[in-house]
Amino acid sequence: MNVGSGAQLPPGLSSTEAACRLLTEGPNRLPDNARKSVWTMLGSVAAEPMFIMLLSASGIYLLLGDKTEAAFLMASVFIVISITLLQQRRARRALEALRDLSAPLALVIRDGQPTRIPGPHVVRGDLLVLHEGDRIAADGVLLRGSISVDESLLSGEAIAIEKVAPPVSESTVGAAPVADASNAGLPLLFASTVVTKGEGVVQITAIGTETAVGRIGESLSRVESLPSGLTLASRRIVWQMTTLGLLIAALVFVVSWSWDGRPLLDSLLAAIALIMAVLPEEIPLVLTVFLALGAWRMAKKKVLTRQMSGLEALGAITILAVDKTGTITQNRMKVAQLSTETAQFHDDNSTPLPNEFHELCRIAMLASPADPFDPMEKAIQQFEQRSLKESRRPGEGLRQAAKYDLSSSVLAMTNVYSAEESSEYLIATKGAPETILDLCRLPERTHEAMQLRAAAMAESGLRVLGVAKGSWHAENLPPDQRDFNFIFLGFVGFVDPPRPDVKQAISECRSAGIRVIMMTGDHPATARAIGQQVGLSERLDLITGAEVAEMNDIELAKKLGYIDLCARLKPEQKLRLVQLLQRNGEVVAMTGDGVNDAPALQAANIGIAMGERGTDVAREAADLILMDDSFASIVLSVRQGRRIYDNITCAIRFIFAVHVPVVALALFPTLFHWPIVLFPLHIVLLELIIDPSCSIVFEAQPEKSDIMKRPPRELTHTPFSLSNLGYAIVQGVGISFILLLGYWMLGSMPALSETQERVIVYISLVAGVLLLVVKNGEFSVSLSAGASKSSNLLIGFIVLITGLLIAITTVPMANEIFQFRRPEFFDWGFAAIMVAIMAIWLETFKRAMQRYAN
Questions:
Q1: What backbone torsions phi and psi does residue 91 show, to the nearest 5 degrees?
Q2: Helix, strand, coil shares of the chain as percentages rounded to 5?
Q3: Which fold has domain 334-495?
Q4: What is the pTM of this model?
């Protein structure tokens, strides 16, 4: 790899040496000051209402002399602490892993090959290749090239600073790091600054805390995720319900102590049980687990989540604004057409190249570098290697004598070759069609005909280069390539072919109510041709950057109502279009890859950066990063976002539906002067059932069949909507009525003891919880169909909970702890009747709601 002029770059560090340095010197990362200590995490756990209630209940049991119950609740306290600490530790590790993935990527030379690695894996001595838009991963010195760097982070100066590497011989550039950069006379570069222009190669001299940024304690590479909208909404509703629970519990305590005449501590236990029943402590855990696992699943599909708010908004997208190159297309040029004055050839990868096009192909190859970097030059090389079957390659027997670079005055590049057996120079040139035609000085009629040919090729979506050859007999070459006499050979047309999965993905978007708009800087003809190929739009209407600049916001907003193709756009115009779409009520997801795309990515509801060809600045401004730059991955993200939101909605509905009968059984027995049914330890056991069912069973649900056939949801819609919670509450009220009615009937039977009544109601309650898991997991189908479609995980969960229920109701020690009596045939039969009635109620309510919806 060559960057700039001069000697060939060395191979850089070996993979083994780099791994050793990473192990001994540590990663290129600044200290994470936000890491919480164990004591801090313990303090946050101790502040949770559920933790306080558990401690209070266990203390009261000790005062009452019930050491077994107190021990059970204290064990629950330690379980809560252990689970919370483990969950936070795993979450921290997952966040660190995501930070490593989402940190700026670095292109280094190792073992002689360019390799893209995460920024934290850069080590001292690495050769770092920089391009426009890259954020520099560590401090170093510029060995090759010329770049402009924005160092405002360190200096406060907004003007970019030019850095030019002096000529360096190959012997002075080794794999070892420069010991003293200041004495080496090489320009210094600093971590976290941004390359605004140019290319260069940097040798790393300091990493992590040894960098200039590290010494002043700043860390731009660390991304702090702000609480998402769902998280904030869940916190509000949890504290609202906590306040409500405290008020109701105070009322229950007063009624139980003063009206029922129960002992003070028993009344306190009843009040604590009610608070624990009201608290929806599962909600924060559910949101954390669902979003984290959703991000993990998407990462496996090569979509990296940087902001959880972006993950939440995926299901609300109405507009998908995408670039063409590399997202809709493959970002890989391919020779599609050759054209001479008398013939044309369309490549289909199977037809042999006719002889009359061999010279055009050979000269195009000679006009390109031997080791091309430009995509079109690579395409020429690949086409030549595949199509020319000659024993002699185009450059055999020739030596490059001179080169004329492309300039603003002459949009062509020319290579001059000398032959060993001849004093005549061979001239090979290629460039813009109009420039090549002018250099060849064709007759006017031929010139016009070939201009029309080039225009027709461009209108079909091709990028066109003209090719010509010439000869020179004098010893001294002219100073300007326009002094050569050229013979016109023809045109080469290139295409960046669409990705094969784009057409189907766009069709999915259309079915899902998502409109796709192409916003590209490419030629209008190219944009229109690609748009038609992938089925983006059947309309031929298109708007260009020049037209956008001339329109006011009202005119442009009206135009955007029916335009799907935007070409020749500047980055700042993309920002304007995104903002106008948002003002019209659209939820916009925007893709971008350049430095100047960052404002549009930040302004969009969801910014999507390219992982392969995107700049670090664009990636840092985005919510999601496509590691494969594929449009199909965007559609996959929308599908996953909708699935996550659907499953969160199901889980929230289930949580509220379950809490209603638990609250009813904790409240109404006190108000009706009945024996207490649920003590704190019963509710603790229910909490251990509810959390896993929500976090595991609902999260693992597959997507619904209509997930990409329904319109996007409103951005302001949440799982805590009145319709969702209302449905859950009605479900819970029905189950509560059945359980309370059954408890009243049991209480009217003199032969039954209090422990026998309690075990029957508790068995029925747990069975009702299982019914709600199945029911809310398959909301759109019947209860029996829901059970038949349950995943293996759900079936395993039901078997596990059933086994646990049998154990606590039949084992003598468990009977004593939970104040149960071993159930007999009558008890199981009565519970089965109540469960059957609950199942009928849930099915009847579902059918009634379906009729109402229809």
A1: -65, -40
A2: 55, 15, 30
A3: Calcium-transporting ATPase, cytoplasmic domain N (3.40.1110)
A4: 0.71
